[in-house]
Structure formats: structure tokens, C-alpha cells
């Protein structure tokens, strides 16, 4: 099993993306600790994992609260002995529209939230990983140098911030054998609400790919499990493109 004897913490573990990663990690042998602000969704993912024979625990944690994040990660290490994988996929505040029309304060707050949560959660894990001399930090981002789509508001800017932080963390943590990676998908249709109004949007996502298929939650699950495993030991400071060709490097 790829992740046997590994401990993973996942912020946003009750969401579609976080839940998919949690199930994938657990299926490969990891003990997963899920954090979020909605116990019901966290428990649903944990119940699925336990029903399949995996190990999962949940905690209500605000990923923007430094004391809460650090206290929780410390408790995970005290319980499990290590933190080997840290994933942050909490929801971001999306503001679509031309930058010319966006409220400056709302735009700044949305980016501050991304910066704050990534700094807090990465610092909390990195403190332990540096002592261990191992670990993997994985985020969702998506640098798209060829972007020509207007009206994305804070979305692409926020993704670029994730990638900039990934690069800086990777060069600082690399000497301690801690890897830092990100994934970009171009969107996961399965994670979006159902309904007739969403069908054209999802079809556009498929049409934009070279493979004429959208990235699925199963794709996210399997590839994330590989990336945080020792099979990807030489991979760090890079974004992994699983967009099915929607985003061309």
C-alpha cells in the first residue's frame, strides 16, 4: 500500500475534493485526520472510510485560527506519532467579474484568507516535518501563464498566490527532505452542484479539454495518493497538471 503507516491531515476534509483525497489516502493505508467547520460532512467522509476498513478521525477546526490549527496538529502528532502529509483544500471566496469593477476591500480580504490559511497550516505541519526529516505538503492551485479569459476576478490571482507560496516553501523546506506540491485541474465537474443551469457549464469544461473528459474525483484521489507517497520522492516545487489538457503547459 502506497501510504501504509503514514499520517495525513486534511483541512476541508468534508468537502468533495478533500473527501476524495481522504478516501484515497485511507485506501492506500494512511491514517487520516479530517478538519473542517461542519461536523456532519466530516463525519460522513469518516464513516465511509471506516466502513471500507480505513482509519479516520475528525475535528472541528477553523483553518484561519492559528491557535486552533497549531493545537490540532500538535494533538495529531501526539496521537499518531507524526504528521507525514498535510493538505489544505478549504473553500476560497470567489469573486467573478472584471477587476475594474471589483470592490477593493472584498478583493483584498479574499486573498488575505488564502495567504493566512496556507501560512498557518503549512507552518503547523512544517514544524513537525522538519524535526522528522520528512513530509509532504500538498495544495490546490493552478498557475496558467496562457490565461486569456477575462472576468475571472480573484480566482486566477488566488491560484497564482498558492503557486508562489508553494515555490518559496519548497526551497526552504527542501533541505529538510520535506516536499511541497500543488495540483491544478481546470475544474472538477463532479464537485459542482447539479441542476439544469449547471449542465452547460460542465459541458464547457469537458469541451475545453484535449481528452474530451473532465477530471473526476477519482482522478484527484488516485493522483494525490501517488504524489504524497514515496513513489514520488523526487517531486517537489512543482504543480502537477491533471486538467486533461484544459490547461496546457
From TrEMBL:
InterPro entries: NAD(P)-bd_dom_sf (IPR036291), SDR_fam (IPR002347). Pfam families: adh_short_C2. The keyword Oxidoreductase applies. Signal peptide: none annotated. The keyword Oxidoreductase applies. GO terms for molecular function: oxidoreductase activity. It comes from the Bacteria. Keywords: Oxidoreductase. CDD domains: SDR_c. Belongs to the short-chain dehydrogenases/reductases (SDR) family. This is Short-chain dehydrogenase/reductase SDR. It comes from Actinomadura verrucosospora. The lineage of its organism: Bacteria, Bacillati, Actinomycetota, Actinomycetes, Streptosporangiales.
Amino acid at each position: 500500500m502506497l501510504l501504509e503507516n503514514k499520517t495525513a491531515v486534511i483541512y476541508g476534509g468534508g468537502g468533495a475534493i478533500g473527501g476524495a483525497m481522504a478516501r484515497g489516502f485511507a485506501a492506500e493505508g494512511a491514517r487520516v485526520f479530517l478538519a473542517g467547520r461542519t461536523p456532519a460532512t466530516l463525519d460522513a467522509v469518516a464513516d465511509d472510510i471506516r466502513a471500507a476498513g480505513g482509519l479516520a478521525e475528525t475535528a472541528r477546526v477553523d483553518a484561519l485560527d492559528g491557535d486552533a490549527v497549531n493545537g490540532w496538529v500538535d494533538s495529531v502528532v501526539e496521537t499518531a506519532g507524526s504528521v507525514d502529509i498535510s493538505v489544505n483544500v478549504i473553500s476560497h471566496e470567489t469573486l467573478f467579474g472584471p477587476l475594474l469593477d471589483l470592490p477593493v476591500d472584498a478583493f483584498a480580504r479574499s486573498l488575505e484568507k488564502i495567504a493566512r490559511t496556507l501560512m498557518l497550516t503549512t507552518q503547523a505541519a512544517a514544524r513537525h516535518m522538519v524535526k522528522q526529516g520528512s513530509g509532504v505538503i500538498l495544495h490546490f492551485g493552478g498557475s496558467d501563464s496562457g490565461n486569456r479569459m477575462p472576468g475571472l476576478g480573484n480566482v486566477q490571482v488566488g491560484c497564482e498566490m498558492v503557486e508562489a507560496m508553494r515555490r518559496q516553501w519548497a526551497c526552504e523546506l527542501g533541505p529538510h527532505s520535506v516536499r511541497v506540491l500543488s495540483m491544478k485541474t481546470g475544474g472538477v465537474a463532479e464537485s459542482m452542484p447539479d441542476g439544469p443551469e449547471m449542465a452547460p457549464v460542465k459541458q464547457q469544461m469537458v469541451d475545453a479539454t484535449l481528452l474530451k473528459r473532465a477530471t473526476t474525483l477519482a482522478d484527484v484521489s488516485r493522483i494525490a495518493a501517488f504524489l504524497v507517497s514515496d513513489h514520488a520522492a523526487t517531486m517537489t516545487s512543482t504543480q502537477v497538471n491533471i486538467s486533461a489538457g484544459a490547461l496546457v503547459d
